Prior knowledge:
B: ABC transporter involved in vitamin B12 uptake, BtuC, about 75% helix, globular
Amino acid sequence: MVSLSLEKVGANYGRRVVLTDVDTGVLRGGGLTAVIGPNAAGKSTLFKRIAGLTSGPGTVHLSNSAKGSQGICYMPQDTGANAVLTVYESVLLSAKQGSSWKVKDAELAEIDRVLAELRIADLAFRGLGELSGGQRQLVSIAQALVRKPEVLLMDEPTSALDLFRQIEVLGFMKRLSAEAGMAVLIALHDLNHALRYCTDTIVISGGSVVASGATSDVITADMLRAVYRVEARVEACSMGRPVVIVDESL
Amino acid sequence: MVAVTETIAGPEGRGRYRALVLRRLILIFCLVAALFASIAVDMALGPANYPLSDVLTALFRADTVSDQLRVVIWDIRMPIALMAVTVGASLSVAGAQMQTILANPLASPFTLGISAAASFGAALGLVAGIAVFPVAVQYMVPINAFLMAMLAALFIHFASTMRGVTVETIVLLGIALVFTFNAALSLLEYLASEQALAAVVFWTMGSLTKATWPKVWITGAVLLFALPLFARHAWALTALRLGDDKAASFGINVRRLRLEAMLTVSLLAAIPVSFVGTIGFVGLVGPHIARMLVGEDQRFFLPASVLCGALLLSVTSVVSKMLIPGAVLPIGVITALVGVPFFFVLIFTNRRRAW
C-alpha cells in the first residue's frame, strides 16, 4: 500500500514564501487525511507542491508506489466552465493525456464505470458550461479517478455540493481509498466532515503545519481557538460521534 | 442512504460517444467535399467563365484540353484558388490556437495586432521605401510585413511569459498593438504620395490576385509544419481549455506548451498576412464556426478549423468574382460580408454553448 510523508517541504511564488517546513508523519494509503486551516493558509499550495506543480525546498517521500510521482494526482477546486466539451469528453481527456488519438473500448468502459459510480452518468453528454458548480465538482472527481491515482489530493471537493452529495462523495471516497489502497488528502472547511470521515488531520495556518495526527486528537477546542479564532466545543452526539459545536467568534 | 456505487439507469456512454465521433467525422467529410467544390467553382470563374466539366478535365486529364485552358487553370487560377485555401486554413488555425492558449474568444491574428503590424511593415516599404531587413529588396513589402508581424507576435508571446501577466492582459496588449500600428499606418498614409497611398490602401484590403506558386508552396509548407505539432499535442491543447491548474494536474507542462504553440502560431499568422495583406475575419470566425460544428476536442477541432478557414476564404474568393461581373474585388473586403451572415445563422440556430 502506498505511503507518503513530507520532510521540511516549502513552496515559494517568486520571492514570496507561501509554505515553510511542512513535516508530516507517514500518511498511508487506505484512508482519508483531512487538510484543514483558515482561508489562504496554504492548503492548495501544499497540494500543488506535493504534486510537483510548484517548486520549493524539502522532500516528498513516496513509498510502495508503482507509478512514482506519476501516481500523484492533484484535483483543483474547479474545472473549466467555458470549454465547449461534454462531460464525457472532459473525463476522456484526463484519461488520454500523453497517449495516442485512438480511443479504445476499454478506456470508454472505464469512463462509463467512473461516471456511474459517481452517479453522474446522466450528465455524460451535457456541456461543461451547462453544469452547476456542484456538478462540475463531481466531474472533476471523475477526471481524477479515471487516472487511477495512488495519491489523490482533493482541493475542497465538496465546497459546492449540497449536503446529500457531500455525505455521498466523502463516504464514497472513504470506501474507495480503503478498497484501492489509495492515499487521499482532502482540503476541507467542514470540520465535522473531517471528524467523521478522516482518520488523520493536518492543520495548516500561516503557511506551516501547526498540528497533525489522528483527527480526534487534532481537532480540539484549543486548536479551534488558536487557529480559527472561535470558541468551540468538541462533544459526542447522540450517536456517539464527535462533533464540533461553535459557540462564538473571538 | 443510496450507495454511490449503485449504478443508475442511464444512456450507455460508450455507444453515444462513438455516435458523436461518427457525426463529427461526417461533418468533417462534408467540409472537405464543400471545399473541393468551392475550389473547382473558384477556378471556373474569371474574366472568361468555363463550365465545371472543362475545369475538372483540365485538372485530371490536362493533356486532353487546349493549351489556353491548361495555362489559365494551372498557371493563373489554381495558385489563386489554392492561396485562398492555404491562407484561410493558416489564419483559421492560428486563430483557433490563439483562442485556445489565451483562453479568449476574441483572440486572432487580427485582434492581437499581428495583421496591423504587417500592414505597417508593408506601408513602410510602399511609402518610405524602408526595408526592415535590407536583403532581397524586390521582396521588400512581404519581408517587411512578415518581420513586423513576427515582431508583434513575439512581443505578445514574451509578454505572456512574464510573471503576473494574465491572458486578459495579453488581449489588452494585443488591442493596444492594433491601435499603435493603425496610428503609425495612418501617419504614413497621411505623408504618402497619391500613388503610394493607393498601393497601401490596396495592400491593406487584402488580395489574392498576386498569388504565385512559390507563395502557395511557402504558405502550404508552414501549414504542413504547424499541423503535426498541434496534432501531437491535441489532448494537451484541449485540456488547456479546462484552465491552467486543471491542465497542470493532468501532467501537462502548461508553460512549455503555451510557448511552443505561440511560436508556431506566430509563424502561421505572419506568413499569409505578408503575402496577401490584411484579411481579418477568417482568423477570428473560422475557429468559432469549427467549434460550433465539432466542439473543442482538438482531434476534430483542428481539422475542422483548417477546413472552415479554407472554405470561408475559398467561397469568398468565388463571391469576390461574382459580385461585379468582370471585376475581382479585394478579398479582405468581401470576407466579412460573406462570413457574417453565415456566422449569425450559426449563432442564432445553435442551441449549444459556443464559448
